[in-house]
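Working notes for the structural subgroup meeting. M.R. asked for a predicted model of this chain before we commit to crystallization trials. I am recording the input and output together here so anyone reviewing the notebook later can reproduce the run.

Input as submitted:
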Amino acid sequence: MCVVAASSVAAAQSLLSNLSGVTDGAYTGAPDAADQVRTGAATLKVSGVRVAWASVGVAPGVNRVAFYEDESGRPSATRIGSFFDNAAPTSVGVMTYSGAATLAPNKTYWLVLLIADQSELAYTNQSVIIANETTYGATLPAGSAYGNAASGTWDTSDPADLKFELIGSANGGQPTPVPQLPIWGSGLLLASILSAAWRYGRARGWASNA
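Returned structure, recorded in token form:
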């Protein structure tokens, strides 16, 4: 798995994406599918999700996307934010779903695709993750899940990754601070430097004898 830092831009932007990875096939939900998102040190305000569809059902319909909290390594019943919607019927390729969800720092969430038309998502076994630097360490953990969100039954054994991208903004993250000496420590350091300089000067005859 390769993680690349992307430059930050203003307003809504790409936060996390693996859409550039190789597509290895179509992922069958049962009927739903899910993948993990791990936030970094910043809060993520997600306003859009781009999803890659590999195939559509016999009668393409309208599907939804939502974020759920993690519960022992699988999606829980607790939804975070709104549903993400696109009124257009499912089509092969990348579709954008709009909504709103705030993901707290340093937590694992599940992006769940609520599939109503038997369409299949694109998946990859060789993810190249593009992470915006403003997320301060957010990533997409390997592996995905298929099951039924309504009943809460999930199989998390599949090592493949769904192909998607999060759009929005990140705030509140902080880079690792540079350690600094406390005030008393700085004083001791300065006194040590001055003492060493005085001893050196005295040895060279620059200081007067007592």
